[in-house]
Design goal:
It is built from 2 helices and no strands. By secondary structure, the protein is mainly α. The longest helix is centred in the last third of the chain and has 41 residues, at about 30-70.
Length: about 70
């Protein structure tokens, strides 16, 4: 959960900066859109980070199984 919250705040800052430069004059409810985009980015990034850790765990298990078979 800590990883998600830190990722969310980083995405929020990035989206805020992008919104300030690109959409400041176009949209009326900028903060809602910025928070929504940052939340979606944080969810996607967190899913990828969790998948990466799962893949690493699977690689370790496969190596252990292969080492056990060779013995």
């Amino acid at each position: 959960m800590k990883e998600f919250i830190s990722t969310f705040f980083v995405c929020l800052v990035i989206c805020g900066i992008a919104t300030f430069f690109f959409a400041g004059l176009i949209l009326s409810n900028i903060w809602y859109i910025t928070i929504l985009i940052a939340f979606l980015l944080a969810v996607i990034i967190t899913v990828f980070i969790n998948q990466e850790s799962r893949i690493e765990e699977l690689e370790k298990k496969v190596e252990e199984v292969l080492n056990n078979k060779q013995d």
